[in-house]
Design a protein that fits this description.
The protein is of the alpha+beta class. The protein is built from eleven helices and 33 strands. It folds into four domains: about 190 residues, Immunoglobulins (Immunoglobulin-like, Sandwich); about 80 residues, Nuclear Transport Factor 2, Chain: A (Roll), CATH 3.10.450; about 150 residues, Elastase, domain 1, CATH 3.10.170; about 160 residues, Neutral Protease, domain 2. The chain is about 25% helix and about 30% strand. Strand 30 and strand 31 form a beta hairpin. The longest helix is centred in the middle third of the chain and has 22 residues. The radius of gyration is 27 Å and the shape is globular. It starts with a strand and ends with a strand. About 45% of the residues are buried.
Length: about 625
């Protein structure tokens, strides 16, 4: 455990300048950029009003970089979270998002992705029209949505993005100038952001938008029995429109079409939606499930997480049932929820857990917006499975909470036993997908995170694929859901990985329940159980005080002496580490250190960290 003090030394022939800043913990990505920084909140602190300045300092930003405020949110335990979007020479950098976490106007931590960009050419060589044509060739659809609804016509946006298309997840990617184009195809169905290199015309990245998978009436649903539903009295009858929640929940009938504009209301003359009327060959009672599921899923996020609809601002929830002929999927397309009738594998896909899953994709889009590929995409799917199962836990407790899609005639996934459905329960373990199929296995590699949620909710023991045994004590789903929502809504950004998930899970547990709590221990050990990081180790939780009065003396052309006032600790201070420009320079058991091998006319930054027996 360490406390530290920083000195910035402008190494000239005579003189030095000093400044202090205390960092308790820092994690870096493969390029050396910080992904998580936790500040010491005792002693010298940084005010929330200095958010942009602290980002610039910690990230070592260049003069071409800028962070612009996206939004500011306050949570239920007193934190303020400012989200910033990275720009390079005025051009948006995709997935370059950073979050500043403050409490009582003091910055406590930072999390996110800072994209290192090396002087790329920001003047495009091809036109937006040419890029659009290349994107259409890439998608190669028979029909596009803008052919029937002009509002879907793409407007290419010039951005900077990592050129990672068809590369392995662990490759280092080049940042390139690209056109970002929203291509919505109706046959076959797809909707993706297609990124076209603005100099070469190549497809360099894709990100899926479609993630497949107040009157009161009585409705006999297909999957959940008889339920009370909120409807709207209209023109002498009732329709599936709930106007009591947010901006409303509207459920429409596509009549086996792919057109949303031609969809119509489901109506009933007496607001008693009976099995005799709706349990028919068209599976119209499935629409009653969808409408009720929309209501209770809204209630879940509002009551448990204080989230007003998927966007947090009361957005209208529009649901479309009977989409296409024998369509065996469900999806959120970036604006509405859509459900097919199923065919040979599934029944109509309007069960409560499936609706909760798709709603989860919308929540993800409006919080951390995880890229739908590789590890971020797997986490995106995992969050959706978690929310689908959790909504079912509250509103259909008679069902199997930990199975996804059990009402549909075919179980999709199991959170309690991922391997039973061919998913890994260990990070990089058996069944882990490394090929590019399914966006590098997003519907498979979600298994470990789903299993982590199950373990912290109900507990469990066993041995993982790494040969590590574990025994997790349950904290209950009521605490597990709050930690998980905080991971997604507060700390994660669009490129977050499993390693980040572990860091953010631990920090979320600490935020909510305290350092060293049973909750922190459980989430840490459950991550170990699924192969992410080490098990919890009980340590001395009191760090030494930070060294003070950091000073330079005996300055020569290539040497000087660094000194400071001794730190104190509840056990004992064992020594000090001295860092030069962020790299360990040496150690000392005294309160001074002789620095050598310097170059005149060069600026150096020094940090001294006090250590105790805990490290």
């Amino acid at each position: 455990m360490k406390r530290f003090f920083t000195l910035l030394l402008v190494f000239l022939f005579a003189g030095a300048s000093l400044m202090a800043q205390e960092i308790q913990k820092k994690e870096l990505d493969r390029n050396g950029s910080p992904t998580f920084v936790k500040f010491e909140t005792k002693g010298k602190t940084v005010s929330q009003v200095e958010s942009k300045a602290i980002l610039s300092s910690v990230l070592n930003m260049t003069k071409n970089d800028e962070y612009k405020t996206l939004r500011t949110e306050k949570d239920q335990i007193g934190f303020t979270h400012e989200r910033f979007q990275q720009y390079y020479k005025g051009i948006k950098v995709e997935n370059g998002t950073y979050i500043v976490h403050s409490r009582n106007n003091v910055i406590e931590s930072l999390s996110g992705e800072y994209k290192l960009i090396n002087n790329i050419n920001t003047t495009p060589s091809i036109s937006a029209e040419k890029a659009f044509e290349n994107a259409k060739v890439f998608v190669n659809a028979e029909k596009y949505m803008w052919e029937q609804d002009k509002s879907f016509t793409p407007a290419p946006e010039l951005v900077i993005v990592a050129a990672d298309y068809n590369k392995h997840p662990n490759d280092v990617y080049e940042m390139v100038l690209a056109y970002k184009i929203d291509v919505y195809a109706s046959k076959p169905l797809s909707r993706d952001y297609i990124y076209v290199n603005a100099h070469t015309g190549e497809i360099v990245h894709t990100n899926a938008i479609i993630k497949k998978a107040a009157a009161t009436g009585t409705a006999v649903t297909r999957y959940s029995g008889t339920k009370s539903i909120s409807t709207d009295s209209y023109n002498g009858s009732y329709r599936l429109r709930d106007v009591s929640r947010g901006s409303g929940i509207y459920t429409y009938d596509c009549n086996e079409s792919t057109s949303y504009t031609s969809a119509v209301d489901f109506t009933d003359v007496d607001n008693n939606w009976t099995a005799a009327e709706y349990d028919n060959a068209a599976k119209d009672n499935g629409a009653l499930d969808a409408h009720w599921a929309g209501m209770v899923t809204y209630d879940y996020f509002k009551n448990i997480h204080a989230r007003n609809s998927f966007d947090g601002s009361g957005a209208l929830i529009k649901t479309y049932v009977h989409y296409d002929e024998s369509y065996e999927n469900a999806f959120w397309n970036g604006s509405v929820f859509t459900f097919g009738d199923g065919a040979s594998t599934f029944d109509i896909l309007t069960s409560l857990d499936v609706f909760g899953h798709e709603f989860g994709h919308a929540v993800c889009e409006y919080t951390c917006d995880l890229v739908y590929s590789k590890e971020p995409g797997a986490l995106n799917e995992a969050f959706s499975d978690i929310w689908g199962c959790t909504v079912e836990y509250y509103y259909a407790p008679d069902k199997d909470t930990w199975l996804m899609g059990e009402d549909l005639g075919y179980v999709l996934r199991s959170l309690s036993d991922p391997k039973s459905k061919g998913l890994p329960d260990t990070y990089l373990g058996e069944y882990w997908v490394t090929s590019s199929s399914d966006y590098y296995g997003v519907h498979t590699n979600n298994g470990p995170f789903c299993y982590w949620y199950y373990l912290i909710s109900v507990g469990g023991s066993g041995t993982n694929d790494n040969g590590n045994s574990y025994n997790i004590s349950a904290i209950g789903i009521d605490k597990a859901e709050k930690i998980t929502y905080r991971i997604e809504s507060v700390y994660m950004t669009s490129s977050s990985t499993y390693a980040n998930a572990r860091t953010f899970a631990i920090q979320s547990a600490i935020d909510l329940y305290g350092a060293g709590s049973a909750e922190e221990i459980a989430v840490t050990n459950a991550m170990y159980a699924v192969g992410v990081g080490s098990a919890y180790v009980s340590t001395d939780t009191q760090a030494p005080t930070a060294p003070t009065n950091l000073a330079s003396a005996s300055i020569a052309q290539t040497t000087f002496t660094l000194s400071w006032t001794a730190s104190t600790d509840n056990v004992a201070v064992t020594g000090y580490d001295i860092y030069q420009n962020g790299t360990l320079k040496g150690s000392s058991t005294s309160t001074s250190y002789s620095v050598t091998g310097l170059t005149a006319g060069t600026t150096y930054s020094y940090t001294v960290k006090a250590k105790d027996a805990a490290g």
